[in-house]
Amino acid sequence: MAAAMSAAYEFIQSANNSSPGPIETQAEPFLCLGVATIARPSSQQYVRGTIGSLLKGLSPEERQSIYLMPFIAHTNPDDHPILHEPWLAGVSNLILKYNVSDDDLAKLHQFEEGHHFRNKSMYDYGYLLQKCYDTGASWVAMVEDDVLARAGWYPEAQQALHNLQASAAKDRLLYLRMFYTEGLLGWNSEEWVRYLGWSIVSFLFVLLVLLGARSKSTRIHRALPNLNLGIICLVSLPAFISLYFMAGRMTMQPLSPGVHEMNRFGCCSQGFIFPRAIVPRLVERTKKGTDEDYYVDMLLERWADAEKLGRFVLVPSLLQHVGSKSSKGWGYDESAGTTWNFGFEDRSP
């Protein structure tokens, strides 16, 4: 990942040193790429690497199909140190800032001053979604400002979206997930009944095979007396089953490359791609969510469950979470530092 991060920052440095020119984009772009960013409490502003990695390596045709919209999510945009850095204007189609009513601006001030991070992030999510929708893009990507995209992410995402659009899932599609963490895809306690059931089935299968073989062969019967049968079924087999679970789900049952439905245990909100058709409904839902004190991914999952919407993920992950300093501050850094995708490292240069 270090090489990819270095390449991303080199791209930004190159953009910083060149004269910005107009970014040409299709009248109706394939993808609006929204990146909401808030200044980190430390001097480390990950958004430079995020945008650099998303743009690095794109062909001119691919770049023209993307409408890039960084969103400076401060009521005073000057609070973000990247606002006046030359590269930002040089690579963006639009640098989005708040253009809202006085009432909404007063509410946003309250959120900032009161450290109501969940409420403000929900408002920001809906605001950026709507602005991306207004570009006419077929798909809307919402990417957090502390991730790194791997090389080739865009054509892989395009192919996955085309496949979903051509599948039976297109009418119930909520999003394609660009990031997930394997930490929540282990042996989840919610599924203990299924694990127990398969363990019992395995036990009975081995027992019946051994009993059947013993009944049909005198030689096997002599080699497999009751004592040996008991040792195999009551000691060795449980030990093998235990080792299977100890090895971990992602070791024994890894997700194969490609698109998978992931309606449970997906985390977190680092990157989603939404079909255009769902955006107006989602914007309305985020407006209600602004006063409900949810995280964005919590709202998405609860809404999807209620509406029976499909959630899909592309394996391996298109994004890696790199932020160890949360924009929220105040005790969130510990969880930020452990949100990781291991599969990304297998594909990242």
Uncertain spans = none
Number of strands: 9
Widest sheet, order of strands: 2-1-3-7-5-8-6
Shape: elongated
Tally the helices: 15
Structural class: alpha/beta
Largest sheet: 7 strands, mixed
Tell me the strand percentage band. 5-15%
Query: Measured on Cα atoms, how large is the radius of gyration?
Result: 25 Å
Helices and strands in order, then pairings?
Blueprint: H1 2-17, E1 31-37, H2 47-55, H3 60-64, E2 66-72, H4 86-91, H5 102-113, H6 117-133, E3 139-143, E4 147-149, H7 153-165, E5 173-177, H8 192-216, H9 218-223, H10 226-247, H11 249-252, E6 258-261, E7 271-275, H12 279-289, H13 296-307, E8 310-315, E9 319-321, H14 333-336, H15 342-347
Parallel strand pairs: 1-2, 1-3, 5-8
Antiparallel strand pairs: 3-7, 4-9, 5-7, 6-8
Helix pairs in contact: 1-2, 6-12, 8-10, 12-13
Question: What brief labels describe this structure?
Answer:
349 residues, alpha/beta, seven-stranded mixed β-sheet, two-stranded antiparallel ribbon, 48% helix
Walk me through the structure.
This protein is of the alpha/beta class and 349 residues long. It has helices at 2-17, 47-55, 60-64, 86-91, 102-113, 117-133, 153-165, 192-216, 218-223, 226-247, 249-252, 279-289, 296-307, 333-336, 342-347; strands at 31-37, 66-72, 139-143, 147-149, 173-177, 258-261, 271-275, 310-315, 319-321. The strands form two sheets. Strands 2-1-3-7-5-8-6 form a seven-stranded mixed beta sheet, sandwiched between helices. The protein has a two-stranded antiparallel sheet with strand order 4-9. Helix 1 (2-17) crosses helix 2 (47-55). The longest helix has 25 residues, at 192-216.
